[in-house]
Design goal:
about 375 residues; alpha/beta; six-stranded parallel beta sheet; four-stranded parallel beta sheet; about 25% helix; about 25% strand; disordered N terminus
């Protein structure tokens, strides 16, 4: 299942939040017939096809809008649980974290009529429960919301704005990319008799993989097979790449002439992470370009030059793109869109004839206004 892990042909039960049905179905399809089951009932999605009678997960809420989740015991106990940790819906984030901890160790009251009549209030006090768990857990994180907040800078508040170029700034960032990973790595509230449940986690095209890997290793509990990060495939101990899949299955097959294929990265960081991957798919080094970007505080500036790595180490592209070029702007993450659309604006004067221009972004926060896209 990528990232150094595998389902090894063992049937799995896939859990997810409401709204992730299409992605969950695609994952089950990829695992093959009979390899995966996923039935999630939600009050907010009555047309999902699942009912409380057949659901593995019932995602409900109290009138106060607080979570009221129920899980079918037989679907979890001693099963391989795959948790689709889709972070698009901020409202579901805490529930997904709770599910991750719960399936690693949960109490099941023994079937005692007296306790049922008493609303199970005596169960824990009298110890009349069994501690159960999944046999193993795989966490899939298609989009890691905090992936771009991976470093701590010193900041100073100067003349109405933030400045991170001040050596003795009195503020520091909270690096949520790593602090949230510490939460994902926590041990459950109760451990099953066999000890901690083996769990693995897989991320897609993370902004920076090194701090994530270091944090997960330090947290312990993850059993991903240690694998050196491979720049050509975007894969490693905890990682897989959607960009590699896009290049391999869509962009490169549609490119009859590799000399007319161009990939442009909006900044040097994306080029560092993905240039070797593009080169592996047959594009010449002079066609794998990037734009220099500088950030001072919250202000971003992009150079109008397009750079590439040549035999001497670096060069600047001159002139226009050839007629018939297929230009793809590729990035792992975009939030405001300023860098992405800034890149398109820099490319426009270099296009002198019929040219195809597109963009592929692994993690897109699409909150753009029409006038910004049209600019």
């Amino acid at each position: 299942m990528g990232g150094g892990g595998s389902t090894s042909g063992e049937p799995v039960v896939l859990l997810h939040a409401p709204g992730s049905e299409k992605m969950a179905a695609a994952i089950c399809d990829a695992l093959g017939p009979g390899a995966c089951s996923s039935a999630v009932y939600s009050q907010s999605k009555p047309d999902s096809g699942a009912t409380p009678a057949d659901a593995a997960l019932c995602w409900e809420r109290f009138p106060s809008d607080d979570p009221n989740i129920k899980l079918r015991i037989s679907e979890l106990r001693d099963r391989h649980v795959v948790l689709l940790f889709d972070m698009f819906d901020r409202h579901a984030e805490s529930e997904l974290l709770s599910l991750l901890l719960f399936v690693q160790g949960f109490r099941v009251p023994r079937p005692l009529e007296a306790h049922a009549r008493a609303k199970w209030k005596r169960t824990e006090a009298e110890g009349e429960y069994d501690v159960c768990s999944a046999s193993k857990v795989t966490v899939l994180v298609p989009w890691y919301r905090y992936g771009s907040m991976e470093r701590t800078c010193r900041w100073a508040w100067r003349e109405g704005g933030w400045d991170n170029g001040v050596a003795d700034g009195e503020y520091v960032d909270v690096p949520t990319a790593t602090t949230f990973l510490a939460l994902l790595s926590c041990a459950p509230a109760c451990l099953p008799p066999r000890g901690r449940v083996p769990k693995q986690i897989v991320f897609v095209d993370l902004h920076e993989y090194a701090p994530v890997e270091a944090t997960l290793r330090a947290g312990g509990g993850w059993v991903n097979r240690p694998t050196a990060y491979d720049l050509e495939s975007g894969s490693g101990t905890y990682f897989t790449s959607a960009i590699d899949v896009f290049l391999r299955t869509q962009y490169r097959p549609a490119l009859a002439d590799a000399s007319l294929g161009f990939v442009v990265f909006p900044d040097a960081g994306a080029h560092r992470r993905f240039a070797a991957m593009v080169a592996r798919h047959g594009l010449p080094p002079s066609n794998v370009l990037w734009i220099e970007k500088t950030r001072v505080g919250t202000a971003i500036t992009q150079s109008a030059e397009l750079r590439y790595i040549d035999g001497s180490g670096e060069a600047t592209m001159g002139g226009k793109f050839p007629v018939g070029a297929r230009i793809m702007i590729i990035d792992d993450f975009t939030n405001s869109g300023s860098t992405l659309f800034g890149c398109a604006a820099i490319l426009r004067p270099r296009i002198g004839g019929p040219t195809t221009v597109g963009a592929f972004v692994s993690h897109l926060v699409a909150g753009y206004r029409r006038e910004k896209v049209r600019a």
